[in-house]
Amino acid sequence: MSMNICVPDNKGVCKLLKMETYVDFFNWLDHDTLMRILICLEDPSDLVRVSSVSRSWREFVIVNGLCKQLCLRRFPCLHRVDHVIEPNCGMKNPSEDGCSKSVEWETLEREHRVYAFLARGCTSFALRECIADAISASSTDNYPEESIHNTLEPRDRVAWGASYWSSKGQSDSASCEMLTYKLVADICVINEISIRPFQAFFQRGSPIYSSKSVRFRMGHTKAPEDEFTGEPSDNCANDNFIWTYTSPEFAMAQENRLQKFKLPEPVLCIGGILQVELLGRVQKQEMDGLFYLCISHVQVLGRQLSPPFSVEILEPSGKFVLKAHSYTQPSLPENGSCLIPNAHLEERAGDLQQFMDLLQEGLVFEYGWHEDDELDEEMPL
């Protein structure tokens, strides 16, 4: 709002001047109205900026856990977080002594920092190849020549010949197979998975051994990961894992190309395990009349959230501890693993650094206010 006042100049002539009146509209709106407004902010950077306007705004954002709510809306699996800690950030954690009110505020501030940075990292960290290793296949026809490890190689032909994984033959075309992989971190955001069926160029007619459709699962192990050697297993691989996400079913074309399957929404994988379910078979092998599945390459596109973040699974509850190890910008992926142009990476890195500075300081930069100022009365309407 504004008002006009009469101010004499040095000659005694009265001039009208327009004066601005500053108010904090947070004091004019009720809690529910403010929540309805701020819940519309889908960018964590906007919430961090809001928390940097004044002391009262910062308190409202933190006490109501708006950054946490944003993360829960995007990634429902975060409802399984038992608590968050900052083990390497030089900040107090929930178990440390202190008065109950102080501990409660420190917990809320910690959650604000962790969830704000997590939400930002899920959209700003570099897109990259996210498979670290192959764990197991539900069956393998000739091991190790046709091992699941061959699916890590982008080419279907290498110096020693064809490179692919092959299932055992089945008389039932509806039978499925499972390929299980370890991701680059125990917490990743996965956007899409690509699969290239294998074309047997050494057989008459060069048949393509694709599946009818494909589905994906993500989760974590029940047993220590060092028990999984990547050797083929005829047992159900699901016995070793707890799956927290299952994708819709995608149709697969019987074509020798890298086929991309984009997930409906980015998925936060807690535990770093991904399984490819190959559903149904379309191609018989001429020599034995059995149906086979053969895959030459599997690629997973996503964002690695470590080393800033890691998780600790709490069994048997299935809940987990979310750990924020640092609020520093993660290093860029090694050459070849990053899937977006360097120019875009540098731009995002700059934006992310500004976000982290704002998050850690908790101060307003645009208006030049400080923590010690009386902030609650200063906001242009």
Features:
381 residues, alpha+beta, Jelly Rolls, 5-stranded antiparallel beta sheet, 6 helices, disordered C terminus
Explain how this protein is built.
With 381 residues, the protein is an alpha+beta fold. Among the domains are: 25-92 and 99-124; 128-224 and 236-304, Sandwich (Jelly Rolls), CATH 2.60.120. The chain has six helices and 18 strands. Strands 5, 9, 11, 12, 13 and 15 form a six-stranded antiparallel beta sheet that branches. Strands 4, 8, 10, 14 and 16 form a five-stranded antiparallel beta sheet that branches. The longest helix is centred in the first third of the chain and has 25 residues, at 100-124.
Describe the protein's topology.
Layout: E1 2-8, E2 14-20, H1 31-38, H2 44-51, H3 55-63, H4 66-74, E3 81-85, H5 100-124, E4 127-129, E5 131-137, E6 157-158, E7 161-162, E8 165-166, E9 177-183, E10 187-197, E11 211-221, E12 241-246, E13 250-251, E14 259-270, E15 273-281, E16 294-304, E17 309-314, E18 319-324, H6 342-361
Parallel strand pairs: 3-18
Antiparallel strand pairs: 1-2, 4-16, 5-9, 6-7, 8-16, 9-15, 10-14, 10-16, 11-12, 11-13, 11-15, 17-18
Helix pairs in contact: 2-3, 2-5, 4-5, 5-6
Query: Could you say what the CATH topology of the domain at 128-224 and 236-304 is called?
Result: Jelly Rolls
Number of helices: 6
- What would you say the CATH architecture of the domain at 128-224 and 236-304 is? Sandwich
Find the CATH superfamily of the domain at 128-224 and 236-304: Galactose-binding domain-like
Q: What's the alpha carbon Rg, rounded to whole Å?
A: 27 Å
Q: What about the largest sheet? A: 6 strands, antiparallel
What is the chain-wise order of helices and strands? Answer: EEHHHHEHEEEEEEEEEEEEEEEH
Q: Roughly how much helix do the residues carry, as a percent range?
A: 10-25%
- Average pLDDT figure: 82
Strand segment count: 18
Structural class: alpha+beta
Pfam families: F-box-like
InterPro entries: At4g00755-like, F-box-like_dom_sf, F-box_dom
Protein name: F-box domain-containing protein
Domain F-box: 32-73
